Amino acid sequence: MNRFEIDLKANKTEVKQAVEQLFKVKVLDVKTSIVRGKFRRIGRSEGRRPNWKKAIVTLKEGDAIQLFEGK
Fold first, then answer.
1. pTM, two decimal places
2. Domains of the chain
């Protein structure tokens, strides 16, 4: 499984097509979730980190993305 930070507006089909085109692998499954930004304080002022969306991509057996495998 490989994890990616993606655009909030991207859907599963777009993610699948992009990963297959960029890394030349076969994608079997894509799971997405929105990660809510945390509240942070710096002294007396409060702020909030932005929300972001992540995609967990499952590849066909034998396929690998070399960027993440460290080879």
1. 0.82
2. 2-69 (3.30.70.330)
